Amino acid sequence: MSVWRNQKGRWIAKFRWQGRQYKHQARTRGEAERWEAEKRVELGARRPQQTRSISFHELATAYLEHCKPRMRHNTVRQKAHVYRSMIAFMGGDVSAIDITPKTFSDYLNRIATEKNNTTSNRHRRDLAALFAWGIRQAVYEGRHPMIGIDPLPEDAGTRYIPPAVDIAAVRLVARGDERDFIECIYHLAARRGEVIRMTWEDVNFENRAVRLWTRKRRGGTLEADFVPMNDTLCGILQSRWKRRDTSDQRVFQFGSQQLRNMMVGLCKMAGVKPFGFHSIRHHVASILNDSGKASMRQIQTILRHRRQATTEVYLHAVDHDIRRVANILNGQSGTPGTHKKAAADGDDNR
After folding, report:
1. What is the dihedral of CA 111, 114, 119, 125, to 10 degrees?
2. Nearest residue to 164 via CA among 52, 287, 257, 42
3. 247 contact partners, CB below 8 Å, separation of at least 6
């Protein structure tokens, strides 16, 4: 389709014929289509066979089917929620190509008002991904309607990282399968999904290594990494192996609801501020970093980050040279004139 609506609400008709581009701006879609038809007749150019425009619901459904085998269930569910919300805002399903940038902008502003800017930006990303996919797959034949709609400002904020004593308290109250699950996350510095995805084929007692599968990479493809197994973890997994259910190859058989409720319950039992599984991974990374026995590259390998910059953000790392500059201020009392005496003493010692 060579007719679409621009950000100013004007309809654009554009096509190429024999190496030359023809373009016209109109007030209505019908006017733009008539101009294109007349121009093609004038040039002797045959208009491509017209197809019905895909609706927003059809586009979203096709995209979600594409996402299901490539993304986590919760990610797909979040996208589906955004697209249902957008349809409700529009008052029903409409042709995808007829939705103007202003409609998207109004929707995102409403989400920001009802929720917050962060939620609005999340909806913006999911809507932008939908149309980008539609254009790549040639199922949406128009201009990307989200171009020019910038994200709203967000407060940076900081992730809550519980103190070591709270994590220790949760580990102490955990029992049975829950204890083993948390200890696996702790000793592998793993993500929740990586541990729940483990099967006995991923556990190699002979080489003392565990294979973890993750989708936290571009494209959502499952990729495997091997992580060393320490003595504590080896003992836990050997115990589970001896009492395993031979009809089920999974190391852990938790359901999704059990996983969602696990940390809430354990934090309540331990009497600490609630935190999630991922906080344990952050905590382990901090232990490795504070020990002084692991390099940044080694910590990156344990966390299985593709980029060192990700690891540095994880650890809230401060450059060592900057630390040395900050240490220049050590011993400075802040009393007026003190710096002058210090400078004079420095001259005497040169």
Report:
1. 0
2. 287
3. none
Angle of CA points 298, 181, 252, to nearest 5° = 115
Q: Which domains does the chain have, with CATH numbers?
A: 3-43 (no CATH), 56-136 (1.10.150), 164-252+259-314 (1.10.443.10)
As given in the structure block, the two tokens for residue 35 are 């101009």
pLDDT digit string (tens) for 223-271?
899 999 999 999 999 999 999 999 999 999 998 889 989 999 999 999 9
Distance of alpha carbon 162 from alpha carbon 15, whole angstroms: 59
pTM comes to 0.61
Token pair 């040279």: residue: 321
Higher pLDDT, 6 or 228: 228
Rounded distance between C-alpha atoms, residue 322 and residue 120, angstroms: 36
Closest C-alpha to 29, from 4, 56, 54, 2? 4
| DSSP summary character for residue 250 | B
Query: Which residue's entry shows tokens 């900050």?
Result: 326
The DSSP letter of residue 272 is: S
Residue 172: half-sphere exposure toward Cβ, Cα within 13 Å: 11
Q: By 3-state DSSP, what share of the chain in percent is helix, strand and coil, each rounded to 5?
A: 55, 10, 35
SS3 33: helix
Residue 152, helix vs strand vs coil? coil
Question: How far is 234 from 231, CA to CA, in rounded Å?
Answer: 5
